[in-house]
Amino acid sequence: MNSVGEACTELKREYDQCFNRWFAEKFLKGDSAEDPCGQLFKRYQLCVQKAIKEKDIPIEGLEFMGPSKGKTENSS
Q1: Dist CA 8 CA 50 (whole Å)
Q2: Is residue 74 included in any domain, yes or no?
Q3: Single GO molecular-function term (predicted)?
Q4: Could you list the residue range(s) of the whole structural domain that residue 44 is in?
């Protein structure tokens, strides 16, 4: 799957590969202390944020990292 920004697609693929490798080779074997993909994720995240701004995609009200504090599961 491509990224929201064409310029971010290669970064997305690199991050996906890194994450999948870490998940299979480390996390599933009980080793979750290391975060080898963190810097790559940050670069990808910045690229996506830039693409969203350039494409003028409205993001108000969207939750990117899980539910907002204070909301209940039943609230819409």
Answers
A1: 10
A2: no
A3: phosphatidic acid transfer activity
A4: 4-53
Specify if 64 maps to a domain: no
Tell me the per-residue pLDDT of 5-46, one tens digit each, with 9 for 90 and over: 888 999 999 999 999 999 999 999 999 888 899 999 999 999
Q: pTM for the whole thing?
A: 0.70
Structure tokens at 27: 């996390």
8 Å CB contact between 37 and 76: no
Q: How far is CA 32 from CA 1, 12, 18, 19, 42, in A?
A: 26, 21, 14, 12, 19
CA dist., res. 58 & res. 32, Å (int): 35
Nearest Cα to 67, choosing from 76, 59, 55?
A: 76
